[in-house]
């Protein structure tokens, strides 16, 4: 990561917003103090990105947020991939962030091998967007992980192809698929959707059928686990918090500014995770029944 000048560091710290500074430190600060803190933040980010993680995570959610960034005289998109894990004590933890210069199978492999190198030997369930090569990379690094692609992303992508006057009814029909009590009834609802809408919107049917194995994974689990794995909304909620601090900025000056914005926002989000996952005692027994004590890294 290139060293920035004091002026650039100070500018980048201001990009994080006065709200962040007040929340983190409780005081207004001079530019000299902000510059000093910014230097420390860069060190903290590097240490945080390379810290050791738990051996097993019950669930890992992965999703991205996109920023406009100035790079070599041009404005480019930078996607920051964020991973959040649910550990075997029921607590959520931000595992890492990775700036993606181009979304490719090699990038996803890099994210997952980074997790493995930091001590994550096993992931029971992943919940991700359906980005090209992502699920395949997960299976390559964590072959026993159950993979679920986000239903909400699939729904949004489907409704992009629906004309306005059909959107409400098409959304209701699609909801019948993912809200079904089991996979067989969900597949029957998908067939019903095909009969109702397939002639008008064949791409939607093609996409759901092509991705069905990865869309329907959550039906394998009890209701408490289904509710937390069928979507990556957890990270989307974090992303909304990040946007709150950057809404006044249409563009960030460099990748380092992006990292600082995201890192400080992630730390603010994680401070709120003071309690275990709702219904955790029930869910823990369900995880043990489904995966066994050894894979859950537990001894009863």
Describe the structure.
With 300 residues, the protein is α/β, with parallel strands linked by helices. Among the domains are: 59 residues, no CATH class; 79 residues. The protein is built from 14 helices and five strands. The protein has a five-stranded mixed β-sheet, sandwiched between helices. Strand 4, helix 5 and strand 5 form a beta-alpha-beta unit. Helix 1 crosses helix 3, helix 1 packs across helix 13 and helix 7 runs antiparallel to helix 8. It is globular and about 65 Å long. The termini are far apart. 34% of the residues are buried. The N terminus is likely disordered.
Key structural traits:
single chain, 16% strand, 300 residues
How would you summarize what this structure contains?
This protein is α/β, with parallel strands linked by helices and 300 residues long. The chain has helices at 6-15, 18-25, 31-49, 105-117, 134-141, 151-159, 164-178, 183-197, 202-210, 212-215, 223-229, 233-246, 255-271, 280-295, and strands at residues 56-71, 74-86, 92-100, 122-128, 146-149. The longest helix is centred in the N-terminal third of the chain and has 19 residues, at 31-49.
């Amino acid at each position: 990561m290139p060293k920035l000048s004091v002026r650039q560091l100070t500018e980048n710290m201001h990009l994080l917003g006065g709200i962040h500074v007040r929340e983190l430190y409780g005081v207004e600060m001079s530019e000299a103090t902000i510059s000093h803190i910014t230097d420390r933040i860069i060190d903290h980010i590097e240490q945080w990105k390379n810290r050791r993680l738990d051996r097993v995570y019950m669930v890992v959610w992965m999703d991205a947020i996109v920023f406009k960034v100035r790079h070599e005289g041009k404005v480019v998109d930078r996607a920051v991939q964020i991973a959040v894990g649910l550990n075997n004590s029921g607590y959520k933890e931000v595992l890492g962030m990775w700036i993606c210069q181009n979304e490719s199978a090699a990038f996803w492999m890099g994210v997952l091998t980074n997790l493995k190198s930091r001590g994550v030997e096993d992931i029971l369930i992943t919940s991700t967007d359906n980005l090209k090569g992502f699920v395949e990379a997960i299976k390559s690094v964590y072959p026993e992980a159950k993979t679920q692609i986000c239903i909400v992303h699939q729904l949004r992508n489907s409704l992009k192809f629906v004309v306005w006057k059909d959107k409400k009814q098409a959304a209701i029909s699609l909801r019948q698929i993912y809200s079904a009590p089991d996979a067989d009834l969900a597949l029957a609802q998908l067939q019903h959707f095909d009969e109702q809408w397939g002639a008008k919107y064949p791409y939607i049917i093609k996409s759901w059928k092509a991705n069905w194995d990865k869309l329907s994974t959550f039906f394998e689990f009890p209701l408490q686990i289904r509710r937390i794995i069928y979507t990556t909304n957890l990270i989307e909620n974090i992303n909304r918090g990040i946007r709150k601090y950057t809404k006044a900025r249409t563009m960030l000056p460099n990748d380092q500014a992006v990292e600082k914005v995201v890192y400080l926002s992630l730390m603010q989000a994680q401070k709120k995770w003071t309690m275990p996952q709702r219904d955790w005692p029930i869910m823990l027994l369900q995880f043990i029944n489904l995966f066994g004590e050894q894979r859950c890294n537990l001894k009863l």
